[in-house]
Specification:
Number of domains: 2
Structural class: alpha+beta
Helix content: 55-70%
Strand order of the largest sheet: 1-2-4-3
Distance between the termini: 33 Å
Radius of gyration: 25 Å
Number of strands: 6
Shape: globular
Length: 361
């Protein structure tokens, strides 16, 4: 006998029947439905089902919280309802038809940054550890750091910068790769474009502010010059360059004969994308990114920072339920680039930590 026979039957009826289910999947604790008409779902009735812990809608998906036994419930539900489960990615794609344009934008932004978050976390921990050993004077009456009194830890500190540099200085490579992966175009071309943004031939983007204008190298095309500036750590510029490449490749792949597409499409996509990245969207993205970082940094450090912090703390948890919180990943990365650190991540961490005691019975 099925473990959830009665509950499965109740849920199917309360959710509007089989014909109201466009797609269904599950995660670790929740059933994820894409419904043809969410208004047909009786939320009060669903929440009265014995095994249901709650319901909510996020990013176009109607989610029913079951708990750790959700996989068993899912199997029994799909068998009884006569519907076929799909992957979470397929459910996300189906759910986009229920999203507003801003939700679609934030969803795509989140899917771009999700693959590189583990690297950002690792890089952040590495930089934090380096700050402890090379910047805080714990020894000799608070006059020297661990790096200053130990050659071993000085070597460790220098060696770990390999990871810090790869994660934060070369971040555009990861961003452009993730965009091509998300959009279904050639990922290797994305990696190459990202590398051209942080090439050693260019002036390091972090040194631009301290370099006199007449000492910045340029490409001289005779009728005009273009500054040879790298985009180390730049988020918005890398995203704009990535989308230029994606749409160029899609355009040429659509109009190029298949017999020569392997030669024509990569060349006609990558070369113009590199030119456009350095001559047009790169400088524009640099300006936009710095402006966003400066505005948020001002909110976090001004005399009214307590108002900004209060508003952020009040709104962050509800915004998570809509999926719009993914936009903070781009802001966080930009803050790290422009100011050397971010105060948003600690605030988000405190919000997450606070959820545990808030749910304590």
């Amino acid at each position: 006998m099925a473990k959830y026979q009665n509950e499965v039957k109740e849920l199917l009826e309360a959710i509007g029947g089989k014909e109201n289910i466009s797609a269904v999947s599950h995660c670790m604790t929740r059933m994820r439905f894409v419904l043809a008409d969410e208004k047909k779902a009786d939320m009060k009735r669903i929440e009265q089902i014995s095994c249901v812990k709650g319901t909510f809608t996020q990013a176009g998906q109607f989610q029913v919280i079951i708990g750790n036994d959700v996989s068993t419930f899912f199997n029994e539900f799909t068998a009884y309802a006569g519907v076929e489960g799909v992957s979470k990615d397929a459910a996300k794609q189906a759910a986009k038809s229920n999203q507003t344009w801003i939700q679609k934008l934030m969803s795509n932004l989140g899917e771009i940054f999700a693959p590189i978050i583990p690297a950002l976390i690792c890089g952040g921990l590495v930089l934090g550890f380096r700050n402890v050993i090379d910047s805080i004077a714990f020894f000799e009456n608070g006059t020297k750091t661990l790096v200053e009194i130990s050659q071993f830890w000085a070597g460790v500190d220098s060696f770990l910068w390999l990871i810090g540099e790869a994660v934060f200085w070369l971040l555009p490579v990861g961003i452009v790769w993730s965009i091509t992966k998300k959009m279904g175009t050639t990922q290797m071309l994305g990696i190459v474009l990202g590398l051209t943004l942080v090439s050693s031939q260019l002036l390091n983007g972090f040194n631009v502010a301290t370099t006199p204008a007449d000492q910045i190298p340029v490409w001289d095309f005779g009728f005009t010059t273009v500054r040879m500036i790298g985009y180390q750590g730049q988020v918005i510029a890398a995203m704009m360059a990535g989308f230029v490449l994606v749409y160029l490749e899609k355009f040429f792949r659509k109009h190029c004969p298949a017999v020569v597409s392997m030669i024509v499409v990569p060349f006609c996509s990558l070369v113009p994308a590199v030119f456009i990245a350095h001559m047009v969207v790169g400088p524009i993205g640099w300006t936009i990114g710095n402006a966003i970082g400066n505005v948020v940094y001002a909110g976090l450090t001004s005399n009214f920072r307590f108002v900004f912090a209060l508003a952020f703390g009040l709104l962050y948890a509800p915004v998570v339920m809509t999926g719009l919180h993914h936009m903070t990943n781009a802001v966080d990365s930009q803050l790290v680039t422009s100011t050397g650190g971010t105060m948003l991540w600690p605030m988000i961490a405190l919000s997450n930590i606070a959820q545990a005691p808030a749910c304590w019975p």
